[in-house]
Backbone:
């Protein structure tokens, strides 16, 4: 396992960036880079709840919202995969405890978004290609008036 870190400076408030990242419609825009039609499903977006990150085919992963401090921080603990809309618990010890963390640091009129992603080594190249593209798309959405 390896932890990858990405950051981008955005001309927007943490609140606007949070809305860009986690509003259902905005989420579909910036995550389209990973898989066209990506979306998430959750009963209530709050700490302690489980969230499903899905493709239209019903594949993806499910995670626990481990910690949420609006609008500055959210941590997802990835629990397993989703196949055909069904949760498949992770039994692979190599997975360990995989987290995905989003931090927002305001600096005057700008905010730095830092994302830390735990991944298996074989996915590093793909993540390094797509995550910067996804964050650039999030920046474009957040900077719209």
Residues:
């Amino acid at each position: 396992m390896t932890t990858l870190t990405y950051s981008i400076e955005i001309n927007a408030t943490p609140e606007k960036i949070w809305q860009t990242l986690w509003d259902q419609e905005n989420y579909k825009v910036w995550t389209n880079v990973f898989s066209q039609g990506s979306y998430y499903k959750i009963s209530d977006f709050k700490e302690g709840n489980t969230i499903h990150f899905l493709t239209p085919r019903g594949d993806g992963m499910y995670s626990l919202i481990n910690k949420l401090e609006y609008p500055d921080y959210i941590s997802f603990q990835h629990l397993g995969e989703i196949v055909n809309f069904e949760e498949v618990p992770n039994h692979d010890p190599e997975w360990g405890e995989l987290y995905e963390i989003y931090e927002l640091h305001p600096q005057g009129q700008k905010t730095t978004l830092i994302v830390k992603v735990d991944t298996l080594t074989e996915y590093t190249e793909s993540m390094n290609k797509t995550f910067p593209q996804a964050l650039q798309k999030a920046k474009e959405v957040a900077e719209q008036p």
Remarks:
- Helices lie at 14-22, 24-30, 124-142.
- Residues 124-142 form the longest helix (19 residues).
